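Dear colleagues,

I hope this message finds you well. In preparation for our joint manuscript, I am sending the Response regulatory domain-containing protein (Acetobacter fabarum) sequence together with its predicted structure, so that both groups work from identical material. I would be grateful if you could confirm receipt.
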Amino acid sequence: MVIKKILLVEDEPHKMEELVASIDGFFRKKADLTHVNSVHAAYWAVSEHSFDLIILDMALPTFTAEENAAERGFDQAQGGVEVLRALKSRNLKSKIIIITQYPDITFGGTRLKLSEAAKVLSQRYEQNIVGSVLYKYRSPSNHIKLTELLKKFS
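The corresponding structure tokens are as follows:
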């Protein structure tokens, strides 16, 4: 199996741990996994490196703050859209899996069902969004759905 470069953009530690366990299990710890936890950090990661896959949370803080949560900036309900916008503006293309706790995504003033979001966002931002995972706290469905999407990717 060829080592895949994967960017995980997730700010909640419990979700990150669960997603990393699923990714490591699927790739048998042979993925080159980079983790960032803010819009700003994701922007710099995609600007400096190319990734085979981006696993992208849609609700992210603007900045990373290691010590003081107040320094993180505002949580953006659609911070993931900012990352998609950054990819498009730099003419970068990647395969993407969306992770969110919300069944709908607001885009352009319209609420999109998560099932429709991949197609709409793929077209708008010229990315290959493989699919999405509706995250539920510590639910086996997270692992099952992510694994299905990773199979499509690999």
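For the figure legend, we might mention the following. DSSP finds five helices and nine strands in the chain. The chain has a mean pLDDT of 89.

With kind regards,
E.M.
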